[in-house]
Design a protein that fits this description.
By secondary structure, this protein is α/β, with parallel strands linked by helices. The protein is built from six helices and five strands; from the N terminus they run αββαααβαβαβ. Strands 2-1-3-4-5 form a five-stranded mixed β-sheet, with helices on both faces. It is globular. The protein starts with 5 loop residues before the first helix and ends in a 5-residue tail after the last strand.
Length: 150
């Protein structure tokens, strides 16, 4: 077995983290890394102590809300948001770090990641959000698409 490079190693971790998602629409995992060390992880799901969408059903499906719109109408917290929240909860600075995420962050997450000091985003699946990409570009955040050669 060949030793994976760092991008592959951390993206595989993000994919594993996504398996904890409780979202009925999309499983997303995020890993925040600095100096080749994992600082925090996050997956998308309901806030701590609240029922999961698996139990309650999907509010967005019930309201026929298309993907990529009206992010505020959801019980779930995005994977990127949860990773930043975990860093704050445990007092870990993520300034200057890299986010490995299975899906490109939306514009809501982009604003949070920029303010948290994330300097690079490595993602596997693109997400069409022109505002998000524009915000990252304006803030000087490096964006890289990743795919595993199988």
């Amino acid at each position: 077995m060949e030793r994976p490079d760092n991008d592959t190693y951390f993206m595989r971790m993000a994919e594993l983290v996504s398996s904890r998602s409780t979202c009925l629409r999309r499983a997303v995992g995020a890993v925040i890394v600095k100096d080749k060390r994992v600082l925090t992880t996050g997956y998308n799901g309901s806030p701590r102590g609240l029922k999961h969408c698996e139990e309650m059903g999907c509010v967005r499906d019930e309201l026929n809300i298309p993907s990529g719109t009206r992010h505020e109408l959801c019980r779930g917290v995005h994977a990127e948001q949860n990773a930043v929240i975990q860093a704050a909860y445990f007092g870990v600075s993520i300034n200057g770090s890299t986010l490995y995420c299975t899906t490109f962050p939306c514009s809501m997450c982009a604003k949070i990641l920029i303010n948290a000091g994330i300097s690079e985003i490595v993602y596997r699946i693109d997400y069409e959000d022109a505002l998000s990409k524009s915000l990252f570009k304006e803030a000087g955040v490096v964006m890289r698409s990743w795919s595993e050669d199988l």
